[in-house]
Write a structure and sequence with these properties.
Chain lengths: 444, 524
C-alpha cells in the first residue's frame, strides 16, 4: 500500500498526462476538472523540469471545463461537451486530448465516452485522475490512447524501425536532447527511431508508427502499459532496455537493439568504435586537470530508476568515480527492487555501490552517515570524501550537509536551464562530464 | 473603498471552514467592456452572473492558500491529496530559500509532505495516512507549525481532518493548522487567502486579547510609545495602544525590496512598521495582535484577516489602495498618517519624496511619452500600476483583471475615467491574446503565466511583480518606470519569438469578438 511521501519527485497522473500532451506535436489538452488543476500541474513541469516551458498549449492556455461545486452535485458531462465544441472552434491543433481530474472521476462523469463522440474530429480521451497514480500513470494513459486511437493499423512492418517508449517528457528533464541523441545512435546502425516527441515529429507521422517492428521501452516504471497496448493493437513486440549513458551504456544499447533487429555485428561494432574514439578525443582534454587536481569523487546518486543505474554505471565504469550510494525513489515492489539491484552487477569498479530504495529524501543523509563509522571527533577518520551528489535539486541540501559537489540531473531540476542538452549516448555523456566538472572549477 | 469593506462582517472562525468569496463578498469573473459599465454591473450584481463558453485554466485556491502558510518559518507543509496538488513545490524550494535570504532570515530547508491519496483512499478515506504524515513531520523535524492543505479528493469524500487534528494536537508539540482550500469549492481563487487566514486565525494566532498572559511581550511594547504619536483605537478592553506599531500585511507578490521601501516611508512618520504574516514565525504570529494599526497592502488578500483581527483584538485597520505609483503611494501613506494624526509629518515626507522622484523620472518620462501599454493581473495591482504608467505619459489601452469585487469599485473610474477598457478573466490568455492582437500595445505588463503568450504575439513584456523587483512605494515607482523603459530599448526578443513560435489559437477565434464568449451562467 502506498504511504505518504516526503518531498515527492512526482506530479499526479493528470500532471503526467499534461506534460506528455504538451510535448506531442501540435496537440491541445482539454481538461475536465476544477479550474486550477491544469495550469498548476503544467506549471510544475515548467518550473521543475529545467524550465521546459509550456509547449504548444500549456499553462493557463489549457482549455478547462472549470467545474465547481454545482457540477459535483449535478454532473459535468454537458459542460465537457460544450468545452470540447468551443475548443474545436477556438484552438488550432492536429490532436485534442481530453483528460480528467479527480473531482469528475469521483462523481462518475465518463470523460472518455464524451470525448469519443468527437472521434471524427481528432479528439481522443484518457482517464487520468490524480488519485490513479503518479506522473508515469498519466504518461501511459495518454500514450495508450494515442496508440489505440491515433496510430493506424499496419500489417506491413518496417524491419529497421523502432518506437521509443518510456521517455516521459518533463519527468526526464533532458527528454528532447536525449531523444535526439537516441535517434542519432540508432541511425548509426541504420535503425530509424520514432520518438513521438521533439524534433521532426508530427501527428501525421505518429499515425504511421504502427509499421515499426519493435518497441524499445527505456524505463522500468513508465511505458510498459503503452508497449503492451502496441503489442495488443498493432502486433509490435517490445524489449525493455535502459537509457544509455556514456561509452559502456551506449555500446551495450546498440548491441542489444542491433541484435534484436538483426543488424550485422560488424556494423554495430564499427559504429561503437568510431563513437568511442570520438568520445575519448574530447575527454582527453580533461585528463590533466582530472589527475592533477584529483577529480575522482565518491559518487552519491539519488534518482528515479530511469537514471539511477544508468548514471551510476557511467560514473563508475566510464569516469572512474567510486559509486558509494545509489538511492532509487520510484520502485516499491520487492520483486522489482530485487530485479533493479541485479542490474548493478555490471558495475566494474573495485568498490561496489550500496543500492537503497528510499522515497523520503531526508533519510539519505542518515543513510550516508550510517554507512560509515561515526565521527567521534577522532583525529584520524576515514570517510567517503571528497563526495559528489548527482540527484535532483532536492538533494542540494544533502550535498550542502556533506560538503559535496552537486549536479541536478533527475527531476526536479529548477537550478538549471535545459534546452537541447542530453545525458544520453556518447555526446550526452560528454555534456554530463562538462557539467559535473564545471561545478568543481567554477570558483577558479 | 473602505466604506464597502465596512459593510462586511466577520466572525467566521467558530466554524471549521470559511465561506467562499462568491457568497461572502460577491465577485465578477467574466466581463468585457468599459470600467464605468463594470462598476454599474458590480453594484447591481449583474457582473457576478457571467460565465464562459470556452474556458481556460486559471488558479486554484489551494495554491494561493499554500503559498501563504508554506512561507512560515520552521513549518512542515502537508498536502492531504494525491500527488499533483502542490507538486509545484518540487520546483520552488529554491525560490523560498532566496526569498528568506533576501529578508535576512536564517536558511532552512523547506519540507513538504503529500499524503499521496490513491484509489483505495478514495474509497476508504485517507485519515490514517494523514495521521502517519503528521507524526512523521513531528518526529523527523520538530517543526513549530504543521499545516495541512486539504485538497478536492478528501473534500469530496468527506475526510474529517479537523477531528484528527484535535486528537493529535494533544500529543504533538507543533501547532497543527488545517487549511480547507479544496479547489472545486470556489472559482474565485482569492478564496484561498481566506482559507489560509482562517486556519491561521483558528490555530496559530493566540485566542486571547492583547495584554493577556499569553502575550507577555506585548505589554512591554504596548506602552512604549516613545515617539509621542497620536492615539485612538481603544482596544476591546478599553486599553489604549500607544505602541506606534503598524502591522503591514504582505502578500506573495511583495519582494523584500517592497517591504524595505514601505517600512522606510511608514517609518519616516515616526511609526514602527513591521511586515506580517508571510515568512513569519509562530512567535511573530502570536504577537500579531499587539499593533496599534493593521494596514492592508492589497485588499484582495487580507480583508478576512484584518476584519477578524479587529474583532479579536480590537485593532483598527485600513484597507485602501495599493501603494504603487506616486499617487497611490501618497494616498496610502496619508491614510496611515491620518489615523495617527500625523498629517503634517506625512505631507512633509510626501513633498520631499515626490520632488526627488519626479526629477529622477523626468528623463524616463521623456522616453516613455506616448508609448502605449496594457496591464493584466490582480485587480488592485493592475489599476494602480496602470495609473502609474498613465501618469508617466503613456497611453493606457486597457487593463485585464483576474476578478473584480467591491474592493476596487471606487478605483475603476479613477485611472483614466469611466471609458477605460477592462476585461475580467482569471487566466483566459486566449481572450487576452485576441484583444492584444487588435489593440497592439507597445508594451505589456502582466502576471506570471501571461507574459509568455503575449511575447509570442510579438509584444514586449515586463512582469507585474517578482521576487527580485521593488515595484511598491517611491523607489518602486522609479524601478517600474525603469523596467518599462528598459524593455523598449531592445524589442528583438519578442519580435523573434513571434516569427518562430506559434500560438495555438485558430483564425476563427482571433477574428471573433470575445464578448460572444461570455454568457449568463445557469446556476452557481
Amino acid at each position: 500500500m502506498s504511504d505518504f511521501i516526503e518531498r515527492a519527485k512526482f506530479s499526479c497522473a493528470l500532471g503526467g498526462a499534461l506534460t506528455t500532451i504538451e510535448s506531442l506535436p501540435r496537440a491541445v489538452p482539454i481538461v475536465h476538472a476544477a479550474g486550477g488543476c491544469a495550469a498548476s500541474l503544467s506549471g510544475t513541469y515548467n518550473l521543475a523540469a529545467g524550465y521546459r516551458g509550456l509547449g504548444y498549449c500549456g499553462g493557463t492556455m489549457i482549455p478547462t471545463t472549470n467545474i465547481a461545486e454545482n457540477n459535483i452535485v449535478f454532473g459535468g458531462e454537458d459542460r465537457l461537451a460544450e468545452q470540447i465544441e468551443s475548443t474545436l472552434r477556438a484552438m488550432d491543433a492536429d490532436l485534442y486530448v481530453v483528460v480528467s481530474g479527480c473531482q469528475v472521476e469521483i462523481i462518475g462523469d465518463n470523460t472518455v465516452q464524451v470525448a469519443s463522440r468527437y472521434g471524427g474530429r481528432n479528439v481522443i480521451g484518457a482517464s487520468t485522475p490524480g488519485f490513479s497514480g503518479n506522473t508515469y500513470r498519466g504518461y501511459d494513459s495518454v500514450m495508450t490512447s494515442v496508440i489505440r486511437n491515433v496510430v493506424r493499423r499496419s500489417d506491413e512492418k518496417e524491419p529497421r524501425t523502432v518506437n521509443i517508449l518510456g521517455v516521459v517528457p518533463g519527468h526526464d528533464v533532458f527528454f528532447r536532447g536525449n531523444l535526439d541523441e537516441l535517434r542519432r545512435l540508432l541511425g548509426l546502425i541504420g535503425v530509424k527511431a520514432n520518438a513521438f516527441f521533439g524534433t521532426g515529429e508530427s501527428v501525421e507521422s505518429i499515425r504511421g508508427y504502427g509499421s515499426a517492428s519493435l518497441n524499445v521501452v527505456l524505463s522500468a516504471q513508465a511505458g510498459l502499459d503503452s508497449a503492451k497496448a502496441f503489442e495488443a493493437e498493432h502486433a509490435i513486440p517490445f524489449i525493455q532496455s535502459e537509457l544509455p549513458i556514456g561509452p559502456s551504456g551506449s555500446a551495450e544499447f546498440l548491441r542489444r537493439i542491433g541484435g534484436a533487429l538483426g543488424v550485422p555485428v560488424e556494423d554495430v561494432e564499427s559504429a561503437i568504435e568510431r563513437e568511442t574514439r570520438e568520445y575519448y578525443s574530447y575527454l582527453e582534454r580533461i585528463v590533466d586537470v582530472y589527475t592533477d587536481l584529483d577529480f575522482q569523487r565518491w559518487a552519491i546518486v539519488a534518482a528515479d530508476s530511469y537514471y539511477a543505474h544508468a548514471i551510476t554505471r557511467f560514473l563508475a565504469n566510464d569516469l572512474g568515480w567510486i559509486p558509494f550510494l545509489t538511492a532509487v525513489h520510484d520502485i516499491e515492489g520487492e520483486r522489482e527492487q530485487a530485479e533493479y539491484v541485479a542490474l548493478f552487477a555490471d558495475v566494474t569498479s573495485e568498490y561496489k555501490p550500496k543500492v537503497i530504495f528510499e522515497r523520503n529524501p531526508s533519510r539519505l543523509l542518515d543513510e550516508v552517515r550510517r554507512a560509515w563509522a561515526d565521527n567521534h571527533n577522532d583525529k584520524y577518520r576515514d570517510s567517503p570524501s571528497p563526495a559528489y551528489v548527482v540527484g535532483s535539486v532536492i538533494e542540494r541540501g544533502l550535498a550542502e550537509a556533506l560538503g559535496a559537489g552537486f549536479l541536478s540531473v533527475a527531476f526536479p531540476v529548477s537550478n538549471r536551464v535545459v534546452l537541447n542538452k542530453s545525458a544520453a549516448g556518447w555526446r550526452g555523456a560528454l555534456t554530463l562530464v562538462e557539467d559535473l566538472l564545471t561545478n568543481l572549477v567554477s570558483a577558479r | 473603498m473602505s466604506k464597502y469593506s465596512d459593510e462586511l462582517s466577520y466572525g467566521f472562525t467558530s466554524s471549521v471552514a470559511p465561506p467562499v468569496r462568491e457568497t461572502r463578498i460577491g465577485v465578477c469573473s467574466a466581463f468585457c467592456g468599459s470600467c464605468g459599465r463594470l462598476r454599474k454591473d458590480v453594484r447591481s450584481g449583474c457582473a457576478m452572473l457571467q460565465r464562459r463558453r470556452f474556458d481556460q485554466s486559471g488558479g486554484c485556491q489551494l495554491n494561493l492558500a499554500s503559498g501563504i502558510v508554506s512561507s512560515f518559518t520552521n513549518t512542515v507543509m502537508i498536502t492531504h491529496s494525491p500527488l499533483g496538488c502542490n507538486s509545484r513545490f518540487a520546483g520552488m524550494s529554491g525560490t523560498r530559500k532566496t526569498m528568506r535570504a533576501s529578508k535576512g532570515k536564517i536558511n532552512e530547508e523547506f519540507i513538504w509532505l503529500h499524503t499521496n491519496m490513491d484509489e483505495i483512499d478514495v474509497v476508504q478515506g485517507g485519515i490514517e495516512k494523514l495521521r502517519r504524515a503528521i507524526l512523521y513531520a513531528q518526529e523527523q523535524y520538530h517543526p513549530d507549525i504543521i499545516v495541512i492543505a486539504n485538497g478536492c479528493v478528501p473534500g469530496i469524500i468527506g475526510d474529517d481532518i479537523d477531528s484528527l487534528v484535535s486528537e493529535l494536537q494533544e500529543t504533538v508539540s507543533a501547532r497543527i493548522a488545517p487549511i480547507h482550500c479544496e479547489g472545486f469549492k470556489s472559482r474565485y481563487v482569492a478564496s484561498g487567502y481566506d482559507s489560509a487566514y482562517h486556519g491561521v486565525l483558528r490555530c496559530l494566532v493566540g485566542p486571547c486579547s492583547r495584554g493577556d498572559n499569553d502575550d507577555d511581550n506585548a505589554d512591554d511594547d504596548v506602552n512604549d510609545g516613545d515617539k509621542g504619536v497620536g492615539v485612538d483605537s481603544a482596544g476591546k478592553r478599553g486599553r489604549r495602544n500607544n505602541s506606534g506599531i503598524v502591522n503591514l500585511f504582505n502578500v506573495g507578490s511583495n519582494s523584500s525590496g517592497d517591504e524595505a521601501e514601505l517600512c522606510r516611508v511608514v517609518g519616516a512618520l515616526g511609526l514602527k512598521p513591521r511586515f506580517l504574516p508571510l515568512h513569519a514565525s509562530l512567535d511573530d504570529l502570536k504577537r500579531i495582535g499587539e499593533a496599534a494599526l493593521n494596514v492592508s497592502v492589497c485588499a484582495t488578500h487580507d480583508d478576512y484577516l484584518l476584519g477578524h483581527l479587529k474583532e479579536r483584538f480590537g485593532t483598527p485597520y485600513i484597507i485602501d489602495t495599493l501603494p504603487i505609483g506616486i499617487k497611490n503611494t501618497n494616498a496610502w501613506l496619508r491614510r496611515i498618517a491620518e489615523h495617527f494624526h500625523l498629517e503634517v509629518e506625512a505631507e512633509r515626507v510626501i513633498e520631499r519624496e515626490n520632488a526627488e522622484l519626479n526629477s529622477a523620472l523626468a528623463p524616463i518620462k521623456e522616453r516613455l511619452k506616448g508609448k502605449s501599454i496594457f496591464v493584466g493581473g490582480g485587480e488592485t495591482r493592475i489599476l494602480t500600476t496602470a495609473e502609474f504608467f498613465h501618469s508617466l505619459g503613456m497611453r493606457l489601452l486597457g487593463v485585464k483583471a483576474h476578478n473584480v469585487d467591491r474592493f476596487v469599485e471606487d478605483m475603476l473610474g479613477d485611472v483614466t475615467g469611466d471609458d477605460l477598457f477592462i476585461e475580467v478573466a482569471a487566466g483566459m490568455p486566449a481572450e487576452e491574446i485576441n484583444l492584444l492582437n487588435k489593440l497592439k500595445p507597445d508594451l505589456y505588463c502582466g502576471h506570471i503565466g501571461a507574459n509568455g503568450w503575449v511575447a509570442r504575439l510579438g509584444i514586449p513584456c515586463i512582469p507585474l511583480f517578482g521576487q527580485g523587483f521593488n515595484f511598491m512605494g517611491y523607489s518602486g515607482a522609479f524601478e517600474l518606470a525603469r523596467k518599462a523603459d528598459k524593455a523598449l530599448r531592445n524589442t528583438n526578443f519578442s519580435r523573434n519569438i513571434s516569427r518562430h513560435c506559434a500560438l495555438p489559437l485558430s483564425v476563427e477565434w482571433m477574428e471573433s469578438d470575445i464578448k460572444d464568449n461570455i454568457k449568463e451562467r445557469e446556476n452557481a
